[in-house]
Amino acid sequence: MRYTHIKMDDKVVVITGAFGGLGPSVIAAFAQAQARLALADRNLERADSVLRPLALEPKRVLVRAVDLLDEREARQWAEAVLAHFGRVDAVLHLVGGWRGGGAIEDFPAEDWQWLNDALVQTTWHVIRAFAPALKAHRGRFVMISSTQAQRPSYGNAAYAAGKAAAEALTLALADELAPYGGSANIIVVKGILTPSMRAERPEELFAELTPAEDIAQALLFLCSDAARKMNGQRLYLC
């Protein structure tokens, strides 16, 4: 799956969790497509190593450390993006994380809270911060989910619940954006194969994981004109 022909034509794309495992592949794909990028993450340690090889013009990229658990920071980030670029055409919500593996009755309360924060609260705050801007320009919202949200296993109960809640918020946003010509969709995977994982274990097949590059291309498709009629849908890459 390679949509190298898709061009974003200077559309403004917000990426949260921009410098996590999936983010660099997404940034590269959208930079190649000529998008303008607003990149947020709690930790910017990897920002320079990710952005330097792309040689982006400074006016085409805005980078900021943002704690999306703080709703005020999320709203201030949205305001900063609008002040810098004047519009928002897409929000790609890549914030995630996993904890699990044990029985439901033994699952640590602190891990339950951590997953709720990472999967649900960040989604809630991002949607609330950017919904007005997405309505204004027929914007697109996309989140990354898991097969666990629809078919949970007991060892992933808390993770599945968090993803299911984030999916519900996204589908509700799809309903809200529809009258304005916008959309909100979900990409579903079993797990993500990042370039670093492939480099560390080149002999492993990772048969059940979806390459980060493929997810980036699917995101590009969902933000393109070809997907303008796609709203409130799950795109399965597994």
Give a brief description:
The protein is an alpha/beta fold. Helix content is 40%, strand content 17%. It has a seven-stranded parallel β-sheet, sandwiched between helices. A two-stranded parallel sheet has the order 7-8.
Secondary-structure map:
Blueprint: E1 12-16, H1 23-32, E2 36-41, H2 47-51, E3 61-65, H3 71-85, E4 90-93, H4 109-136, E5 140-146, H5 157-177, E6 183-189, E7 192-193, H6 195-200, E8 210-211, H7 212-222, E9 234-236
Parallel strand pairs: 1-2, 1-4, 2-3, 4-5, 5-6, 6-9, 7-8
Helix pairs in contact: 1-7, 3-4, 4-5
The CATH topology label is Rossmann fold
Any idea what the shape is? globular
What is the strand arrangement across the widest sheet? 3-2-1-4-5-6-9
CATH superfamily: NAD(P)-binding Rossmann-like Domain
SSE pattern: EHEHEHEHEHEEHEHE
Briefly, what CATH class? Alpha Beta
- State the major sheet: 7 strands, parallel
Residue fraction in strands: 15-25%
Give the averaged pLDDT, no decimals.
95
**Unreliable segments of 5+ consecutive residues:** none
Total domain count: 1
Q: Structural class of the helix and strand makeup?
A: alpha/beta
